[in-house]
Amino acid sequence: MSLTPAELSSSVAGGIGASPQRPDGNLKVRGEFAYASDLWHEDMIWGSTLRSPHPYARIVSIDLTEALKVPGVHAVLTHQDVPGSNLYGLEHKDQPVLAVDVVRYQGEAVALVGADHPETATRAMKRIKVEYEVLEPVVDMETAADDTPLHPGGNLVRHVPIRRGDQSPTADVVVSGRYEVGMQDQAFLGPESGLAVPAEDGGVDLYIATQWLHVDQGQVASALGMPLDKVRLTLSGVGGAFGGREDLSMQVHACMLALHTRKPVKMVYNREESFYGHVHRHPAVLHYEHGATRDGKLVYVKARIFLDGGAYASSTGAVVANAATLGVGPYEVDNVTIDCYGLYTNNPPCGAMRGFGAVQAGFAYESQMDKLAEKLGLDPVDVRIANAMTEGSVMPTGQVVDSAAPVAQLLKLVKDKPLPPVSTTLDLRSMPGGVSNTTHGEGVVRGIGYAVGIKNVCFSEGYDDYSTARVRVQVIGGELVALAHTAACEVGQGLVTIMQQIVRTELGVQRVTILPMDTSIGNGGSTSASRQTYVTGGAVKAACAAVRDKLTKLAGGRELSEVDLADLVGDDVIDETVEWRHRATEPLDPETGQGNAHVQYGFAAHRAVVDVDVELGLVKVVELDCAQDVGNALNPQAVLGQIQGGSAQGLGLAVMEEIQTVGGKVRNPSFTDYLIPTVLDMPPMSIDVLELADPNAPYGVRGVGEPPTISSTPAVVAAIRAATGLALTRVPVRPEHITQT
Amino acid sequence: MDFLRPDTFAEALAVKAERPDAVPIAGGTDVMVELNFDHRRPSALLDLTRIAELREWTTVDGRLRVGSGVPYTRIIEQLGAQLPGLAMASRTVGSPQIRNRGTVGGNLGAASPAGDTHPVLLAGDAVIEVASTRGTRMIPAAEFYLGVKRNALEPDELIAAVHLNATPGPEQFAKVGTRNAMVIAVCSFAIALHPAEKRVGAAVGSAAPTPRRATAAEEFLAGELDWAAPEPLLDSVKRRFGELVAEAASPIDDVRGSAAYRKHALAVLARRTLGWAWQDHLGKEARECA
Ligand SMILES: Cc1cc2nc3c(=O)[nH]c(=O)nc-3n(C[C@H](O)[C@H](O)[C@H](O)COP(=O)(O)OP(=O)(O)OC[C@H]3O[C@@H](n4cnc5c(N)ncnc54)[C@H](O)[C@@H]3O)c2cc1C
How many CA atoms lie within 13 A of A60 on its CB side? Predict the structure, then answer.
């Protein structure tokens, strides 16, 4: 017989359901945690990247002569020095490691310099002479498909159609709109950084801040023309990711320089370079039409969605699939016609960012729900509840939602919270404009808005999505201790804590060491799609079960709860590695978009209360309360942290965060003008966490990180609309939009 | 790059005379950003933070002399009651960390059109004391700002202090930014009422190549205000004042905001701050009569 985890862990603190301290918490708070930018090696040199100043240009010539003459320069490399394949990419291998004869976006890497000092590298870089023939950039996503082809197959990266039910439906009431989402950045605080060390076997060891070690490893090995086992990656300290580290940045570049010079090479982007060095959230144009009955039941939804993928595909294909399959939101709609397109342009490349396609669609469909409510004279929450999906509802893809979908309950929870009082004393910090002293109450109007959203959890469309975990127990100093090892990236979200908690619960062992994440163990999958607690958590749990089976055998019939485990293990080492998969998904039918494409769905709802200075167009979000179902809160504090962070990022998109481009050029590549919310912008939150277990998931968990990012943006905008009476069809909402200047 | 660290102002002036290309550094909140972005590569930095004289404030002939190196945090905490306008502007600068280090001298040295203290200094008739081994010059704020990030300093001069009215009338400062803290001004505005002289100071920031006074607005308002028998202001007066302030600006469209918005917002800020300042004045008159 085997023992239930609860019996084993009864004496162990810090298991699942608790909120134990993070193992890296103290170091981070004290500023002692080593991030990738702190990496150091005896004898190392510094790499830097020459980037294109043009969004689209032909490279006529590259002259390295003067750069090579700079004392202290060890190497200057171009595409000719890429040992293996010069093309890489997450979905399509369309992006050059170093540009060959054309550059397709401002900031594209053209050449590399390795030098004994970063300053020397910069100086040498300025002496590389690149002659460009500047071309007219393609920058409009809606017309890009018919514009100059930027890649051999044309500018359409992917089209996902969804066809469900009646394709020529009619309805009593029709509302339509065109919505726009600006380009948001992940704005992680730790810039791209890594250290490549050439190894004696001719391979290379790369210490790197990333979200997915194995996919990096594959791409780096292919570019270097090396077998996988010659390219070994170890995760370094990651200062945030949010999707921006799924693609390669300096990984191949640092390794090329290291192999070429036979010296350890460090690369660190500065803030400005970081804005050019990673993909952003796809800007979008979304055309929607909703048809409903007079009492507000949705009859049909039609949508044409354009997502600007920029110069290279990155994960555009998967983002397109998300925007399409989640395009009607968490509502029951029988008749759906959606066409979602991802395009190449000469804008900055866009790819993964928290919410991944669901954010763009969410802003549009929730704006439409408000428009519908207004047209019918109904309460916006009532209209949503009338159409809310539940467990058993059918998605526009035909997939049946087979675990909790408490959409109506989440909406009711946020609606029923007490409303904040209108403050009667003047505290500038609580005013729109804050301490900038723009109003003492003049022009301030309060508005309330609601939104709810849906997000898929884990990888979809038939992807073989798994994680590998190794768990070992042994006796050290008379105490039974455990060790857990995966390649799943800790990027700040707290996976290391969750792994410890799971091992404690499953094995009843207090002391759990987490080994550095690296490629010496199998794939841990991506730290994205809200999936690591689910998938790597599932793998660690399964590895613990394998260890427990071994222990049970050792116990030879005795119950584990009755033996002293340290005695039982003695000098043995029990070491089990397990590969764990969530249930399989299916691809989408390419013509109808039908198929059981997603693993799990997550839901969150927000109520936003805002004070808008309608004369100046400034906004103070007074409250941004949230209700979310997380299946099972393995670490309640971490769950709240995710909901707060996701909500803040959604607030940022609603009122300030945008990479502004003109003709493909970025106008604000710095934190001076790319604004993210401060403590005076983000209110304290009241959060309701539901724990409606998903029977298909380990411990019943449901992915937490992304759903709050989706509903927070439209809730804030709905509240601004309520205060101003304006249509506000674009995010971020700027003072110019509110004041119409 | 040399790092020069004089202990006294006299020493600093001697160094600056000898090496006019040395870049002074006070709080460093502008200088370090420029170095970091590689916008500037000076042969030497002249560190002013050891010079005690620059970090003091005193009263001289009934005017306040505030050393160029007094950080914003101390202006807010120690001079808030005496210099309300400057304290309000200081409170809007950056974050606590920036206010702990940043100085008015640095704001003047950088002379960015978006610097927050400039409109207050203009409206409050501040005089900038600059010095070199050749002597001292007293430059009215209105003559200090020459162009985008250009000021009236000669290469061998340093800013010693700013001189301000020690008993100013009602003052207000307001700035618009697209975030509720830590934001560069999209536009800003300061007003200072000078009841003793029956005058008004008004100036705009971040809305022209330099911070500048709104002279027509000042004159219009001085003519409208009944200083002796103050009454609540007519809305039409506030509006006209706002229009004239907006007209004084010549803003551009940029990544932070449109020219049209800046003009619109300046008119709103002018109207509102006038209302608050006049309310202050009414309050004071009422207290003095009681
Ligand atoms: C994150 C951040 C936020 C900011 N927010 C704001 C803001 O909201 N509002 C705002 O106005 N500014 C802001 N700034 C800019 C800066 O903080 C201010 O301009 C500040 O007043 C500069 O003062 P400092 O002492 O740090 O100047 P420094 O950087 O030391 O010097 C600035 C310039 O003045 C010169 N200088 C300094 N002292 C003297 C002197 N005594 N004589 C002659 N020249 C001198 C220097 O050579 C340099 O050219 C911000 C900066 C940062 C980094």
Answer: 7
Residue B22, ligand 1, Cβ within 6 A? no
Distances (CA, A) of A59 to A49, A103, A349, B46: 16, 7, 19, 44
Asked whether A705 and A639 are in contact (CB, 8 A), the reply is no
In a domain, residue B129? The reply is: yes
pLDDT tens digit string along A393-417? Answer: 999 999 999 999 999 999 999 999 9
Q: Report the alpha-carbon distance of residue B197 to residue B199 in Å, rounded.
A: 5
> Residue B39 has what pLDDT?
87
What's the pLDDT at A94?
98
Same domain, B29 and B72: yes
Instruction: Count how many domains chain B has.
Output: 2
Q: Does B265 touch chain A (CB under 8 A)?
A: yes
Q: What is the pLDDT of residue A423?
A: 79
Domain boundary among B102, B134, B165: B165
Residues 198-257, chain B: which have Cβ within 8 Å of A?
255-257
Q: How far apart are CA A187 and CA A648, in angstroms?
A: 12
Do the beta carbons of residue A710 and residue A454 sit within 8 Å?
yes
Q: Which amino acid is at A323?
A: A
Which amino acid, one-letter code, is at A714? P
Domain A37-135+191-238+245-277 in CATH 3.90.1170.50:
yes
Q: Is the pLDDT of residue A8 over 60?
A: no
Confidence of residue B38 (pLDDT cuts 50, 70, 90): confident
CB nearest to A439's CB, from B173, B179, B272: B272
Ligand 1 nearest atom to the CA of residue B101, by list position: 26
- Last residue of some domain: B142, B165, B188? B165
Comparing C-alpha atoms, which of A562, A569, A486 is closest to residue A531? A486
Q: What ipTM is given for this predicted complex?
A: 0.96
Q: How far apart are CA A737 and CA A66, in angstroms?
A: 50
Confidence label for A146 from pLDDT (cuts 50, 70 and 90) = very high
Q: What is the pTM of this model?
A: 0.97
Look over chain B and give the mean of its residue pLDDT values, rounded to a whole number: 96
Q: Using the predicted structure, report yes or no on whether residue A108 has a pLDDT greater than 50.
A: yes
CATH ID of A5-32+466-581, from 2.40.50.140, 3.30.365.10, 3.30.1330.10, 3.40.50.10800: 3.30.365.10
Q: List, as ranges, residues 288-347 from A with C-beta within 8 Å of B.
A: none
* Tens-digit pLDDT profile for residues B11-22: 999 999 999 999
Q: How far apart are CA A558 and CA A713, in angstroms?
A: 56
Fold designation for A280-460+589-739 = Aldehyde Oxidoreductase; domain 4 (3.30.365)
**Domain-embedded: residue B290:** no
Contact B31 CB / ligand 1 (< 6 Å): yes
For the CA of B184, the nearest atom of ligand 1:
8
**Could you tell me if B112 and B32 lie in one domain?**
yes
- The whole-angstrom distance between B4's CA and the closest CA on chain A is 22
Question: pLDDT value at position A5?
Answer: 46
Per the CB < 8 A criterion, the answer to whether A125 and A113 are in contact is: yes
pLDDT score, position A12:
85
Q: What residue owns the CA closest to ligand 1's atom 37?
A: B106
Nearest to A450 by CA among A714, A70, A231, A122: A714
For residue A433, which residues of chain B lie inside 8 Å, CB to CB? 174, 176-177, 180
Residue of A nearest to B259 (CA): A741
For residue A27 the two structure tokens come to: 């170091």
pLDDT one-digit tens code per residue, A38-50:
999 999 999 999 9
Contact A654, A612 (CB under 8 A): no
Q: Where are the domains of chain A?
A: 5-32+466-581, 37-135+191-238+245-277, 280-460+589-739
Cα(A613) to centroid(ligand 1), Å: 30
For ligand 1, is residue B17 a contact (CB within 6 Å)? Answer: no
